[in-house]
Amino acid sequence: MKINPFKFGTVVDDPFFTDRTVELERVKEILASNNHLAIISPRRFGKTSLIRKAVRESDRKVLMMDLQLINSPEDFAAQYLRRIYRLFPLERIRQGILKFRIIPVVSLNPATNEVDIAFEPGAPPHPYIEDVLNLLEKLASPGHRPIVILDEFQEIGRLDPAMGNMLRAVMQNHTRINYVFLGSQESMMREIFEKKKSPFYHFGIVMSLPKIGQEAFYEYVSDRLKGMTKNYRAISVSVVSFTGGHPYYTQQLAFAVWNILHRNPAAPDPVSEAIEETITMHDLDYERLWATFLNTDRKILIGLTRNETPALSAKFAKMVRIHAQSTIFSGLKRLVGKGYLIQTGNLYDFDDPFFRQWIIRRRETY
């Protein structure tokens, strides 16, 4: 039985990992040095897949946390310490914890065979955050340097306005750890690492992750459709053209196309059929999403489906009937911030090409 060679929705590695050759080598070079790294890109561009592949090839201990799932400074310290327990022998960790200024409650969860950790609520956060961060530095050695990956790092200020200062004050003294900060909100991440007043100003090398080049993705899709149909080249061009090289949506569309060809190798237009299937599958989700938008945002989104007119031009403002360009700018900023649009220079485009097509179809159908 043939297995679909495309994968989306989760972290990918070989054989599903494609291109990013230059970015992968760059990340590995930085991690081999004493520098830290911040990777910025929209969600589902493959940041996590890229960094996980790089650290897997480094054969070093890795501590990874997603700050979206952390709810307080106490929770940050507890989850950080919990991950340290996964990396080092219990006795070495126990000796370090005994020197903490605030001793956490540590218990073994028999259901998961992992430790549960809790810090006293209401206690000043700086001492236990400092102690936990320094514990990993003490457990490391010059020849065995761990890598700490903090995903969605722009969330740090949500935990506590002083968290950035607390972390920088401790991390800047560490010489045995590489810190990697991942973020999907470009404006917030750049403010954290490029604004002079930010505690993390110039703390690490900032790297932007763009879409995968359409030619590279065409080769990737083409190679995997080659045995399915004699029209694999034209079909691959149509797939990549529709998604614009977006890693997640290219894999998603190619996955659907492969399934259609597997069912019917003579399908007349498998790309259009796959797009229609996907839109139909998510119709209710898109309908619910559309109901959450402000009327200004709806006008902007509809305008972006109609032509290539720059969204900040007077022509676009006239087309969408929003007279104040400042209103359009605020709407674009809001939509980018929430991840519905991707900004490249002064150009704006949909993150989800299927959602764009859903808007077009709905307006044509009704």
Provide a quick synopsis of the model:
The protein has 366 residues and is α/β, with parallel strands linked by helices.
Q: What would your notes on this structure say?
A:
The chain has helices at 21-31, 47-58, 73-87, 90-97, 125-139, 156-159, 163-171, 186-194, 214-225, 232-243, 247-263, 270-281, 283-291, 295-306, 314-320, 325-337, 353-365, and strands at residues 37-40, 62-66, 105-109, 114-118, 147-151, 178-183, 205-208, 341-344, 347-350. Helix 3 (73-87) runs parallel beside helix 5 and helix 14 (295-306) crosses helix 17. It is globular. With 366 residues, the chain is of the alpha/beta class. The longest helix has 17 residues, at 247-263. It is built from 17 helices and nine strands. The chain has three domains: 21-208, P-loop containing nucleotide triphosphate hydrolases (Rossmann fold, 3-Layer(aba) Sandwich), CATH 3.40.50; 214-276; 284-365, Orthogonal Bundle (Arc Repressor Mutant, subunit A). The strands form three sheets. The protein has a five-stranded parallel β-sheet, with helices on both faces. Strands 3-4 form a two-stranded antiparallel sheet. A two-stranded antiparallel sheet has the order 8-9. A hairpin with a 2-residue loop joins strand 8 (341-344) and strand 9.
